[in-house]
Write a structure and sequence with these properties.
about 100 residues; 6-stranded antiparallel sheet; DUF3630 family protein; DUF3630
Length: about 100
Amino acid sequence: MDNPTFRLSHHDSEAGRLVLAADALDFDNAEQHLMAFCQLIDAKVTEKQTDADLLSWLIDFEGVPFMLRAEHYSASVWLERLGAEGDEELTFLNTWLSKQLG
């Protein structure tokens, strides 16, 4: 898998979550998907955790911490705000990614 493909699924502004579908996501390539997403949005990974079916990474995007997660069962990747900050960034990413991902 050279270039993971993402599609915007939905933006839940109340929950502070931006969800993307990643059809080719599986347990073996989930880390590649998260790294590709971080590169796409120019985010810095600060911490990684891997559980049986979920990858959870703490990332920094534009100076705001977010939790980036991937679950291979649902073939999805999502970005969650931590605390009160991050709404503007998620709204920006939703708009920007809709243009980037077509």
